Each structure stands twice: as structure tokens, then as C-alpha cells.
């Protein structure tokens, strides 16, 4: 992509409304446009990152055996009356009426709707286990939308729902999602810590929040230092092996870790002082086992091997991809801007033409752009007529992992300079070696 053609509305000034660094950087780097309280448009570069995050989430959901669907954003109040949550959910739910004065709502979550899908089709335990997920916009009328997409009113959520014959299977489904969350957050470049958590309006009795530590996090969290260097299972993890998956979950739930609501002073006292991490954290994912909470009132049941009918045992599993993008920036930036982990970077590299309009520089850059693209790299080519200082500032701000810098002196010597955004390390290599280096 040529920067001269790219819709990247960079802001020179720090937006005053942005209280935390991720919000500030997302606005400055032209990723977002605020449309109203807690409501944002994702501009091209923001959308690209969001898509990359979603692609990783999808891969890890699919790998763990979940199947993607897509449910509507607007739901009928009837379903929510069946579960009893229509009245319980409170003011966070946006209630709407259609032209026939039927009560509708903009979904804050989808337990009821997916349970309705399930009960319409599935009759036998032989069709279990089943896990259905979607990635869809949610609306919650937050009391205090703030911090940009970190706590917005309309936000993207990946929500998965598992159905099993009984607790044992449901626990195995929970464990698979637990492991897939560890892998998902690691793949987007983040260290997440699963913590015992409160279940809130979703309900249930077993629940973990996946927390990324950050000073600006809204939750107070407490965990053992061991979590900071625990090894996440690889891509070859065997989701068909319930016992193996359960062992991984056991390892990851043995050291102390709890959010404020579930914090247990006695257990905390037992942790050696030097091992205590009391910090702030961002909730990027949350998993719940809630058994028959929805299947019973909504009549979602299957025939078991015993020939009898059983209400299915369920769980639900959420990740906020839009919040996750902000959380990645909270965890990975410096005073000059964003530092994208490679897996979610909107482009692989910035190709910086220091003297656009100079025939030799243009030719060398055009050739590099073609060669890098042919080698499979996604390049943002700064072909604008800005001065070099401005170009470097933009490249640092938008945080692509690599900068390839081409100026008149380098071209004369047949060389380009390569800068690593994260380490700041610079290296000079022959122009002819650049494509091979990254291809
Ligand atoms: P919070 O405690 O931050 O209000 P929650 O516990 O209400 O979140 P869940 O119902 O557990 O949220 O939803 C699953 C995931 O959706 C959360 O872990 C988070 O990543 C994301 N999420 C929830 N609310 C928001 C929001 N207002 N803006 C952006 N993402 C959100
Ligand atoms: Mg909430
Ligand atoms: Mg919460
Ligand atoms: Mg939660």
C-alpha cells in the first residue's frame, strides 16, 4: 500500500479526551474515529489489526473444536423472558421496540439465542459435544464508557457456547476453551493470566477471567509470580485428550491467581512475599461453566444413553477483540508510539523513501516495494513528499515491526538502512539483499 493513497488520518496533537495511552495512540495513529459516547468507527489501519486479531481467535477456536456461526445483533425480548434475564439484566441492556411494538433488544450476549438454536435441532447425546461461536457486535449501555475501545458501548465479542450431556463433558469443554485462550493471547503477543473470577449476570459456579497486566487496567488482581514465565502449550496440543488438557488446566490454576471480587486473604497470606504480584489488569477474556442455568428454563434437552431426557450442561466463553487491540497497545508501546507484535501488525514493514521525487530514490524504492511484495511482505510504502523527520515520526507512531529506510546517499552506495521498531537496532544492508532478508 502506498501511503499517498492510504486513508490514514494521523493526528499531530494529543487528543485531549484520551485518558490512557492506547486510546491516545489509536486516535493519533488514525485507527479510530469516535462517533459518540462509547461508539467508534474503525478506520483502515485499525480494521486491519482487528481482523488479524479475529483471525487468530478463529484459528484457535476452530482448533479446539468450536464451529463458527453468526447470530443477529437484534434479539427478541421473548427469549430473554424465557430465561428470566429480561428483567434481571438491568440498564446495561439497550431495549428497543419495532414498528409492531414488539420488545426487542440489542444483544449484550447470546446465551438465550444459541440455546434456542440448540433446542430446535439437537435431540440426542450422540450429537454432543457441541460448541458454537460467533464474532459479532454487542451493545452494553455502560454507565461509564471510557478509555476508547477498552470500554465502549458497542464492541466486538467472540462468544462461544458449549453443550454437553453432563458435568463431566461440560468440564472438558471448559478446559478446551481454557487452553485455547492461553494460546490465543500468546499468539497475539500477550501474556495472559487466568484468574478465578466472579460470574456476574452470566451466572454459574466455575469461571476464569483472562487478565493482561497493565497499570491502566480497571481490575485489581492478585497472582503468584510463577505465572510470569509459565509456558503456553504449543500448536500440537491434543484437544482430543481430555486428561492431557485437564492437566494443563491444573498446572495453570494451581498457583494463586484471583481478581478482587474472588480474592481470598487467607490463601494470599500463604504465598511468600517475594512471589506476590498485586497489580492492575485488563480483562480480555472470560469463561463460564453454568450447567443448566439456561437449558432448564428454556427446555434444551437431549436423550442420553440411558434413554432418558437430560437438560444439557452448558458454558460460555467470551473474548473482546476490540478491547484486546487496545490492551496490546497498553502493553506494547514507547514514548514515540505503538510497537506492534508481528502477528497483529497492520503491515509487516514501512518502506521509507527519504526523498520522494528524486529519480534514483524513487526507482530504488519502487523496485524494493515490488520485490518485497513479491516475497509475500505486506508493505506500507511512504512515497509522500513529507520531510524525513515527519516520516520517521509517523513510522514510529504507527509501530510497524520494521522500517526500511532509503535515502540518496544509501542509494548511491547501493544500500538501505533497516530499523527494528522494538529494539531500535539499525543495520545497513545491500538493496539487493532486502527482499531475501524478509521474504
Ligand atoms: P467488564 O468487567 O470489563 O465490564 P464483563 O465482565 O462485563 O467486562 P463479559 O460479559 O465477561 O464482560 O464479556 C466477555 C468479554 O467481552 C470481556 O472479557 C471483555 O474482553 C469484553 N468486553 C466486555 N465489555 C466490554 C466493553 N464495554 N467494551 C469492550 N469490550 C468489552
Ligand atoms: Mg461489564
Ligand atoms: Mg468483568
Ligand atoms: Mg467478565
TrEMBL record:
A molecular function GO annotation: proline-tRNA ligase activity
Assigned GO CC terms: cytosol
Superkingdom to which the source organism belongs: Bacteria
Biological process terms in GO annotation: prolyl-tRNA aminoacylation
Signal peptide: none
Domain Aminoacyl-transfer RNA synthetases class-II family profile per the UniProt entry, residue ranges: 38-341
Keywords noted in UniProt: Aminoacyl-tRNA synthetase, ATP-binding, Cytoplasm, Ligase, Nucleotide-binding, Protein biosynthesis
Keyword Membrane appears in the UniProt entry: no
EC number: 6.1.1.15
Catalytic activity: tRNA(Pro) + L-proline + ATP = L-prolyl-tRNA(Pro) + AMP + diphosphate
Name of the top EC class for this enzyme: ligase
Subcellular locations according to the entry: Cytoplasm
Gene3D superfamilies: Anticodon-binding domain, Bira Bifunctional Protein, Domain 2
Chief place where the protein resides: cytoplasm
Protein task: Catalyzes the attachment of proline to tRNA(Pro) in a two-step reaction: proline is first activated by ATP to form Pro-AMP and then transferred to the acceptor end of tRNA(Pro).
PANTHER family: MITOCHONDRIAL RIBOSOME PROTEIN L39/PROLYL-TRNA LIGASE FAMILY MEMBER, PROLINE--TRNA LIGASE
Assembly behavior: Homodimer.
Family (UniProt): Belongs to the class-II aminoacyl-tRNA synthetase family. ProS type 2 subfamily.
Protein name: Proline--tRNA ligase
Amino acid at each position: 500500500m502506498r501511503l499517498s493513497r492510504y486513508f490514514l488520518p494521523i493526528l499531530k496533537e494529543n487528543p485531549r479526551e484520551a485518558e490512557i495511552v492506547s486510546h491516545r495512540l489509536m486516535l493519533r495513529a488514525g485507527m479510530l474515529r469516535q462517533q459518540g459516547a462509547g461508539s467508534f468507527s474503525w478506520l483502515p489501519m485499525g480494521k486491519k489489526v482487528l481482523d488479524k486479531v479475529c483471525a487468530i481467535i478463529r484459528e484457535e477456536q476452530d482448533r479446539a473444536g468450536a464451529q463458527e456461526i453468526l447470530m443477529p445483533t437484534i434479539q427478541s425480548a421473548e427469549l430473554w423472558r424465557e430465561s428470566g434475564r429480561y428483567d434481571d439484566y438491568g440498564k446495561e441492556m439497550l431495549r428497543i421496540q419495532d414498528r409492531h411494538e414488539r420488545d426487542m433488544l440489542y444483544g449484550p450476549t447470546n446465551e438465550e439465542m444459541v440455546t434456542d438454536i440448540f433446542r430446535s435441532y439437537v435431540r440426542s447425546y450422540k450429537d454432543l459435544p457441541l460448541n458454537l461461536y460467533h464474532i459479532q457486535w454487542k451493545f452494553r449501555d455502560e454507565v461509564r464508557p471510557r478509555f476508547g475501545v477498552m470500554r465502549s458501548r458497542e464492541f466486538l465479542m467472540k462468544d462461544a457456547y458449549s453443550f454437553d450431556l453432563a458435568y463431566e463433558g461440560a468440564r472438558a469443554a471448559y478446559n478446551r476453551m481454557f487452553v485455547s485462550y492461553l494460546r490465543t493471547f500468546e499468539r497475539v503477543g500477550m501474556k495472559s493470566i487466568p484468574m478465578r473470577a466472579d460470574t456476574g449476570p452470566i451466572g454459574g459456579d466455575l469461571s476464569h477471567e483472562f487478565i493482561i497486566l497493565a497499570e491502566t487496567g480497571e481490575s485489581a488482581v492478585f497472582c503468584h509470580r510463577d505465572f510470569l514465565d509459565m509456558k503456553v502449550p504449543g500448536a500440537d496440543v491434543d484437544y482430543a485428550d481430555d486428561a492431557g488438557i485437564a492437566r494443563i488446566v491444573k498446572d495453570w490454576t494451581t498457583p494463586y491467581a484471583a481478581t478482587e471480587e474472588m480474592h481470598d486473604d487467607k490463601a494470599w497470606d500463604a504465598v511468600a512475599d517475594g512471589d506476590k504480584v498485586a497489580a492492575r489488569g485488563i480483562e480480555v477474556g472470560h469463561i463460564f461453566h453454568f450447567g443448566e442455568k439456561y437449558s432448564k428454563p428454556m427446555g434444551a434437552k437431549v436423550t442420553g444413553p440411558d434413554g432418558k431426557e437430560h437438560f444439557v450442561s452448558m458454558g460460555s466463553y467470551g473474548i473482546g477483540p476490540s478491547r484486546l487491540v487496545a490492551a496490546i497497545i497498553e502493553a506494547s508501546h514507547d514514548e514515540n508510539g505503538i510497537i506492534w507484535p508481528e502477528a497483529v501488525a497492520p503491515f509487516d514493514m514501512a518502506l521509507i523513501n527519504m526523498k520522494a521525487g528524486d529519480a534514483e530514490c524513487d526507482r530504488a524504492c519502487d523496485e524494493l516495494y515490488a520485490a518485497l511484495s513479491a516475497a509475500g511482505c505486506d508493505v506500507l510504502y511512504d512515497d509522500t513528499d513529507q520531510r524525513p523527520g515527519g516520516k520517521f515520526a509517523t513510522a514510529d507512531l504507527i509501530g510497524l515491526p520494521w522500517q526500511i529506510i532509503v535515502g540518496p546517499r544509501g542509494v548511491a552506495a547501493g544500500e538501505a538502512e533497516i530499523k527494528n521498531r522494538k529494539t531500535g537496532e539499525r543495520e545497513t544492508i545491500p538493496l539487493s539483499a532486502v527482499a531475501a532478508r524478509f521474504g
